Amino acid sequence: MHEFVSFTLSGVTQGMIYSALAMSLVLIWRGTRIVNFAQGAMGMITTYVAITVVDRGDSYWWALVIAILAGVIIGGLVELVLVRPVESKPPLNAVIVTLGLLILLEAIAGMVWGGRYRSFPPAFSVQGVFVGSSRINLSPFDIFTICAVLAVMVGLLVLFRWTSIGLRMRAAAFEPEVARLLGVRVGRMLTLGWALAAGAGSLAGLLVAPNVFLYPSNMDAVLVYGFTAAILGGLDSPVGALIGGLGIGLALSYIGGYEGASLETIGALVILIALLMVRPEGLFTRVAPRRV
Amino acid sequence: MTRMPGPLRFAAVRHGLVVIVLAAAVAGYTQIAGSFADFQLAQIAIYVMAIAGLTVLTGLNGQVSLGHGALMAIGGYSAALVMQHDPNGHLPLAVVLVIATAATAVAGGIIGVAAARLRGPYLAGATLALAVGIPQLAVARQFAHTLGGEQGLTVRSPQAPSFLGSSFSLEHWLSWICAAGALVVLFLLSNLVTSRYGRTFRAVRDDEIAAALAGIHVARTQVLAFVVSAASAGLGGALLGVVTSLVAPAGFTLVLSIALLTGIVLGGLGSIVGAVWGSILVVYVPQWSTDLAHSLSFSTVMGSYFAVAFYGLVLIVVMLVFPSGLQGGIVRLWGMAASRVRRG
Fold first, then answer.
1. Do B41 and B85 fall into the same domain?
2. Which range, of A232-241, B138-147, B165-174, averages the lowest pLDDT?
3. What is the residue extent of each domain of chain A?
4. Smallest CA–CA separation between A61 and chain B, in Å?
């Protein structure tokens, strides 16, 4: 029983991180109908930026801010330079371009920072907090992780629901032609969407790094988890991304806890395939017929 | 096109002749080249199998797979496991290879059934999960005993037959085996491509609904393409194990899957001849980048990152500016030159 509670708590924490990554995949999918396979690698690069700042002796918070800003800039640039030309092409082209970016970023990280595993400092202690007299598997850093992801989600919700720019972004994503006629700068909105998504992805990279160490391919498996979470949530729904992330986090935490950590990627693969077979549209979206 | 005379009418005969010429060229080349060239030839042949298989799947049938490295792993591990159950080496290598190929084809069939329901980015994501997940199986404690964990399994090397003489080296023999495998795969795949099946593959790629209306069973065609493609990759994986005498998770990373994708993109997504070009580049680029790293007095590790960066750049640049790939580019240049000559 104690074990179960402990796996559940770590599942929730990990799930929030997968939610953040799923969220950035969903944002990009909604805007440009592209799955950004480079999202994990972009988060990895910004985590290296953060560790460089920390190594210079600056504080974690400063590193966090710089890393997220770097993510936002990289995201915007990637949309402008790489994605814009393939947006109107067959989907395979965009898949290959983002995959090329994934591997290119991993190679750059290896060249600049080396391939060795590095530990990444967490913002707070990773020792579990005491509830009564027993220590539970929920550390101050875990609580920070959960709060940070929730804050980002709420921020994005407010942005999309209650601000004019959010409304324009939604219009650009759903009806680009009509939005353009109404004076929305659609291209600029899409760039902004990628930038925001990449910011959320950087946060995911920073939060997962103390757990999985930092090395050039450290986000490969995390990207698969985030993608599975996004699919679980329907790839189109931000709320779905949150719930999907939590679901995947819990499932993988139980698999990892009871069966061994190396089965987690296989577990994600099995969940992903089963999900795509049974309900490819995800659990949280209505079915849209395939258009001829 | 003008009609070819006599037996050359048949595509299979033409393909057979090309294969015989290539076989003679390979045999001649290994006579004059050293043992390192043998190893490179074997590598190229292995990549030819996997990349030609992936070309059929992605280029001709329109199903993207980022997980062909995982299929190579299945082929390699199958061969290693068969050899472990045959410690005295009674089974000829050909039988081991056929079993490994068949095992990968079965795996490909299972994946193909799932893949036939998926499109575009969904399929890409699922096969990406395959590439990241499958090699982890070997490390999982439930399977580490059978699959050898991180250390992997050793694969026995075959003996060169005695009639070739005692000076005939093992590297030589291995490169011949791999080249023979690659030529068989190329022959079979090019016949498949020009056959009725090849046409249905392309029809499904171009328009599923039109293909279905024309009486093509879309899902069955997609599964068939996956089986054929997986079998080619499986044979390549098994031979990779034989040549390096080891199968380990570190040999089948995501980078391998992406290298294969780079090969088909370089080759122009859909041309079997392009797949050969792509394979040659995918083998030589890491070599060149290691040399480049040395000449810039960087470490060998840096060289391997150069190679990976090259794959990434190729995927991006080719997709942005040169979507028909190297083979498409050559065909286009050839067409331009030919029309210039004709105009005089």
1. yes
2. B165-174
3. 14-125+135-217
4. 31
Question: Using the beta-carbon criterion (under 8 Å), do B312 and A103 form an inter-chain contact?
Answer: yes
**Yes or no, beta carbons of A107 and B308 under 8 Å apart:** yes
Q: Tens digits of per-residue pLDDT, B166-209?
A: 777 888 888 889 999 999 999 999 999 989 999 999 999 988 89
Q: Report in angstroms the alpha-carbon separations of B32 from B115, B243, B291.
A: 45, 20, 23
Among chain B residues, the shortest Cα distance to A225 is held by B129
In a shared domain, residues B53 and B90 = yes
In angstroms, what CA-CA distances link B132 with A14, A156, B77, B213?
A: 19, 31, 16, 37
With a cut of 90, say whether residue A236 has pLDDT above it. Answer: no
Out of B225, B251, B277, pick the residue that ends a domain.
B251
- CB contact under 8 Å between B121 and A35, yes or no, is yes
Q: Which residues of B touch A232 (CB under 8 A)?
A: none
| pLDDT(B114) > 70 | yes
Q: Do residue B318 and residue B210 come from a single domain?
A: no
Quick one: angle between helices B35-54 and B11-32, nearest 10?
160
Q: Does residue B336 form part of some domain?
A: yes
pTM reported for the whole predicted model: 0.88
Residues B263 and B234 in one domain: no
Indicate whether B180 and B257 sit together in one domain. Answer: no
Residue B332 maps to a domain: yes
Q: Which one of B192, B226, B251 terminates a domain? A: B251
**pLDDT, tens digit (0-9, with 9 covering 90-100), for A72-99:** 999 999 999 999 988 888 888 888 899 9
ipTM: 0.87
Contact flag B125-A96 (C-beta cutoff 8 Å): no
Tell me the shortest Cα–Cα distance from B150 to chain A, in angstroms: 11
- φ and ψ of A213, to 5 deg: 65, 170
Chain A closest-CA separation from residue B255 CA (Å): 8
Quote the CA–CA distance of B185 and A181 in Å, as a whole number. Answer: 54
**What is the C-alpha to C-alpha distance for residues B27 and B208, in angstroms, rounded to an integer?**
43
Asked whether residue B206 is assigned to any structural domain, the reply reads yes
Strands (E) in B70-182, as ranges, are 153-154
> In which domain, by residue range, is B275 found?
253-344
Q: Do A104 and B316 touch (CB under 8 A)?
A: yes
Q: Are residues B56 and B168 in the same domain?
A: yes
Q: How many domains does chain B have?
A: 2
Give the tokens for residue B90. Answer: 């009674």
Chain B nearest CA to A256, separation (Å): 10
Q: Are residues B226 and B140 in the same domain?
A: yes
